[in-house]
Specification:
Layout: E1 4-5, H1 16-28, H2 38-57, E2 65-68, H3 71-85, E3 92-96, H4 101-112, E4 116-120, H5 130-136, E5 141-145, H6 159-167, E6 172-176, E7 195-197, E8 210-214, H7 229-232, H8 240-254, H9 258-279, E9 283-285, E10 297-302, H10 307-316, E11 319-320, H11 336-342, E12 352-356, H12 363-386
Parallel strand pairs: 1-11, 3-4, 3-5, 5-6, 6-7
Antiparallel strand pairs: 2-8, 7-8, 9-10, 10-12
Helix pairs in contact: 1-8, 2-8, 3-4, 9-12
Length: about 375
């Protein structure tokens, strides 16, 4: 049975070219990038070349890019680093109720240490109100942390407007761009972003690797201590093959028009929804379909059908999807994103699935998924009616 992967918000299959490059680097560039001999210099050149490619992609300077283990480490570094760096200025931070757990749990930890955190509400499209943000900002606010693209519903936040608002205050602006990199255009200068977190495995690169953008002139306390790697900002021997692969993965995202990519994903969404309509399936769309949104995520409620049974049945049929964030998929905790959008008593929370498309998915795969979903949904909805 063919297996079709539609869980690209959780992770993406690695690019064949990235795999080839990493394999080649593992064989030929095994030197420590901190060593001064020829092997080390060769490895250092690989790291710095990737750093330059990545910096160019987001309109940053090379020295503003710090390689990390991924989005969670980068988010932790910013949140705890800013709290320590600016505690004499204030102890108030702002984020939203639909951030990734690595942001929310870091904020909760700071609350236990005496910091104050404002969690902004979102509307039914998963968007914050700029007026709410403006009212929440105070002279004591030291950080505003807002994700670029929500990982469960695809909502895009108005980063430029937020950046301009925060730039007029004492606060720094942090963007979790794990779902944004590769899917939308990101310009740290135009958007007035002070910190940005990313992860390589979301853009067809290797796992356990990401970068943190840290605006020039800001120096956060180190999260990891040891050697002087990463311009003395992140200790630990660099993963040279992985970094090379990350650089190539970013380069490949720059070769693809974001508008064309979003049009492809929009067509995938339309294909699924049209087939559900034609089959008479009773469903609701949780993701915004217009406005500021990345169409690589489609979140659907199939009325009367349990999220976990939907996922299990579709898995048996050969289709990989999810019920939300991969970081909480193994638990029975309701989606905090859908809860914030629709309320804790909404049936959407227990009857919704997340379908997320990637660069390598085809219309044929999506059509096959839609047909399988129809079969499963009909069976489950008919059973629900009989019960």
């Amino acid at each position: 049975m063919e297996q079709i992967y539609l869980d690209n918000a959780a992770t993406t299959p690695m690019s064949p070219a990235v795999i080839d490059l990493i394999s080649d680097e593992m064989k030929n560039d095994f030197g420590n990038a901190s060593s001064t001999h020829g092997f080390g210099r060769k490895a250092r050149n690989v790291v710095e070349s990737a750093r330059h490619t990545i910096a160019q992609a987001i309109n940053a300077k090379d020295q503003e890019i710090i390689f990390t283990s991924g989005g969670s480490e980068s988010n932790n570094n910013v949140i705890f680093g800013v709290a320590e760096l600016r505690k004499d200025i204030g102890k108030h931070l702002i984020t939203t109720k639909i951030e990734h757990e690595s942001v929310l749990r870091s904020m909760q930890k700071l609350e236990s240490q005496g910091y104050s955190v404002t969690y902004l509400d979102v509307d039914r499209d998963g968007r914050i109100s700029l007026d709410d943000l403006k009212q929440a900002l105070t002279p004591d606010t030291i950080l505003v942390s807002v994700m670029a693209v929500n990982n469960e519903v695809g909502t895009v936040n108005p980063l430029k407007e937020i950046g301009e608002m925060v730039a007029e205050t004492n606060a720094y602006f942090h963007v979790d761009a794990v779902q944004g990199l590769g899917n939308i255009d990101l310009d740290v200068q135009d958007m007035k972003i002070d910190f940005m977190s990313t992860s390589a495995h979301k853009i067809n690169g290797p796992k356990f690797l990401g970068f943190l953008y840290e605006r020039d002139g800001i120096r956060l306390p180190n999260l990891i201590y040891g050697g002087d790697q990463e311009l003395k900002r992140r200790a630990g021997t660099e993963n040279v093959p992985g970094i090379a692969g990350f650089g190539l993965a970013v380069e490949e995202t720059q070769e693809v028009s974001k508008a064309e990519l979003q049009e492809k994903y929009t067509n995938f969404q339309k294909l699924v929804l049209d087939r559900l309509d034609q089959a008479g399936i009773d469903y609701e769309v949780n993701s915004p379909l217009t406005g500021l949104v990345s169409h690589h995520v489609l979140n659907l409620r199939i009325k009367g059908a349990s999220t976990y049974l939907l996922i299990a049945n579709l898995d048996l049929a050969g289709f990989a999807i999810s019920g939300g964030s991969a970081c909480t998929a193994g638990s029975l905790t309701p989606s905090h994103v859908l809860t914030a959008m629709f309320g804790p008593d909404s049936p959407r929370i227990s009857e919704s699935i997340r379908v997320s498309f990637g660069r390598y998915n085809t219309a044929e795969e999506v059509a096959a998924f839609a047909d399988a979903l129809i079969k499963v949904a009909k069976r489950m909805q008919e059973k629900k009616t009989q019960d």
